[in-house]
Amino acid sequence: MPHDSSVAAATASPQPARIVAAFGRNFLADRGDGRPFPCVARGKRSEVVCGDRVLLRPGDPAVIESVLPRRNTLWREDAWRSKVFAANLDLLLVVTAAEPPPHLDLVGRALIAASAEDIQALVLVNKCELPGTHDLLQRLQPLAACGYRVLEISARERPRQTLELLQPWLSGRTSMLIGASGVGKSTLANTLIPGLQAQTGTLSEALGSGRHTTTATRLWDLPALPAGSALLDSPGFQAFGLNHLSLTQLQHAMPELQARNGQCRFQNCTHRQEPGCVVRKSVEAGAIDAGRYALYLRVLQELLEAPRHARA
Ligand SMILES: Nc1nc2c(ncn2[C@@H]2O[C@H](COP(=O)(O)OP(=O)(O)O)[C@@H](O)[C@H]2O)c(=O)[nH]1
Ligand SMILES: [Mg+2]
Ligand SMILES: [Zn+2]
Predict the structure, then answer these.
(1) Which residue out of 127, 154, 187, 197 has the highest number of ligand 1 atoms within 8 Å of its CB and is therefore the one to mutate?
(2) Ligand 1 pocket test, candidate residues 93, 125, 156, 197, most atoms within 8 A of CB
(3) Whole-model pTM?
(4) Is residue 173 part of a domain?
(5) 138 and 211, same structural domain?
(6) Burial of 110 (0-12, 13-18, 19+ CB in 10 A)
(7) Are residues 83 and 61 in the same domain?
(8) pLDDT digits (tens, 9 = 90+) for 242-300
């Protein structure tokens, strides 16, 4: 009997795999053996993102049959809409540094994005050997006060200590670095993944996307850590979209507001002008940091103004 591989593929049962690279409609999947292979999505509009657990129908190329339910999703935003770009994350490493001048608004927003998706977050103060670090730690005190862990690292000057410090956080989990340009994300990624720069070159060939690799999202294994440790790399990405959040989600995503949930006179209090607002009172009394409250007001204003039905 002639061997018909298409019949064999059509009758084989779908296999579980994880999407480890995504660019447009091109994907790489991994069955857990660390040997990524190309696959394609069915249908016109691809809803598959890096980090997705999928069922694959074997073939050449393999075809993504279905996407398994996501534990969480990360969103990026442009002028018109919010868009999912990654899924199933365990830990967000929010990187900042004394130089270039820190962007604490970005740090606060990243922490909101993580909380809203139930992703643990860690603030990393990189370049901690710089003299400006002390001031920066002072400015980050309000975050520590509401429960966020702040760790000092020096990815370039003390790579081994940095790796040791982060090891327990990264082990067996999928993590992502985020932070403003110049804080040291690439330096840290190269510390965590020896040979990363070289691997990035071959990614373009594997995806067949040539010059577009800089916008591909990639999940890298962390070879120095226990199996299952991975780092999500999304080059050029610096800020999460928050406009898909509801008022309630935003309030739950800030620990100091969450702690006062339901204590205002009005159940649906926006914590702006309402009488009997416990949050405003706490800001006036200094129990809630004024800078964090200002961040809340900015994000609230943005999501109230965002087009509500333009999500993709
Ligand atoms: N002083 C100091 N500089 C660092 C450290 N880590 C990274 N840098 C430098 O910061 C600059 C930006 O680093 P890069 O990794 O490209 O930042 P990215 O834009 O966040 O990816 C480079 O010149 C790095 O050498 C560090 O721990 N200490
Ligand atoms: Mg970089
Ligand atoms: Zn209130």
Answers:
(1) 187
(2) 156
(3) 0.89
(4) yes
(5) yes
(6) buried
(7) no
(8) 888 999 999 999 999 999 999 999 999 999 999 999 999 999 999 999 999 999 999 99
